[in-house]
């Protein structure tokens, strides 16, 4: 028995609605991405697959230590960790992070730093005045970002401050490889 015309129309409607829902989810809620390069080691590795939360940026700006994806160029997105928020002073001195003059621990780097040669530094000393577009504080509407792999990362030390409107989303969940399944800290 041949399929009725109404059955075909129902199938076409279902496909169109499904495509629209998927497009809306990817545009406004969440999107999968693939990590490219070593700049976020040890937290994220090359080819890790993540789910990026886009919707929370509608309600609030990223927090310190959120891992964000942003438009670095028209064709390239980067993934880095938010270190400095608008109005803050950021300084690295003796391999330690100071925000507004106060020492701030970076627990996601503890293991790497413990494995370093005692005479080596993981993050070279700098102040915000040393970076492109340098100023005393992170400008309003911007954040200061660093890769977790401080020796091999193109980040705010090279790019300058990142405008909040260039941030695509916050990396929330790793789903591949399966051994890295879980939330991103």
Automatic annotation (TrEMBL):
SUPFAM superfamilies: LexA/Signal peptidase. PROSITE patterns: SPASE_I_2, SPASE_I_3. Its EC number is 3.4.21.89. It catalyses: Cleavage of hydrophobic, N-terminal signal or leader sequences from secreted and periplasmic proteins. The keyword Hydrolase applies. InterPro entries: LexA/Signal_pep-like_sf, Pept_S26A_signal_pept_1, Pept_S26A_signal_pept_1_CS, Pept_S26A_signal_pept_1_Lys-AS, Peptidase_S26. Keywords: Hydrolase, Membrane, Protease, Transmembrane, Transmembrane helix. It is an enzyme of class 3 (hydrolase). Residues 8-176 form the Peptidase S26 domain. The chain crosses the membrane at residues 12-35. It is a single-pass type II membrane protein. It is found in: Cell membrane; Membrane. Gene3D superfamilies: Umud Fragment, subunit A. The keyword Membrane applies. Belongs to the peptidase S26 family. This is Signal peptidase I. It comes from Gracilibacillus xinjiangensis. The gene is lepB.
């Amino acid at each position: 028995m041949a399929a009725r015309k109404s059955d075909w129309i129902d199938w076409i409607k279902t496909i169109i609605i499904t495509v629209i829902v998927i497009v809306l989810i990817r545009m406004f809620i969440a999107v999968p991405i693939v990590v490219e390069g070593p700049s976020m080691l040890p937290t994220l590795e090359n080819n890790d697959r993540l789910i990026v939360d886009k919707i929370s940026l509608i309600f609030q700006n990223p927090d310190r230590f959120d891992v964000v994806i942003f438009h670095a160029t028209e064709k390239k997105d980067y993934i880095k960790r938010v270190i400095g928020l608008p109005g803050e002073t950021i300084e690295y001195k003796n391999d330690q992070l100071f925000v507004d003059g106060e020492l701030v621990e970076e627990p996601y780097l503890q293991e790497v730093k413990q494995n370093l040669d005692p005479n080596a530094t993981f993050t070279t000393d700098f102040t915000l005045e040393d970076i492109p577009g340098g100023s005393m504080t992170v400008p309003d509407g911007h954040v200061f970002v660093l890769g977790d792999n401080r020796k091999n990362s193109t980040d705010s030390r090279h790019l300058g401050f990142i405008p909040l409107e260039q941030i695509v989303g916050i990396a929330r969940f790793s789903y591949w490889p399966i051994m890295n399944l879980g939330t991103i800290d």
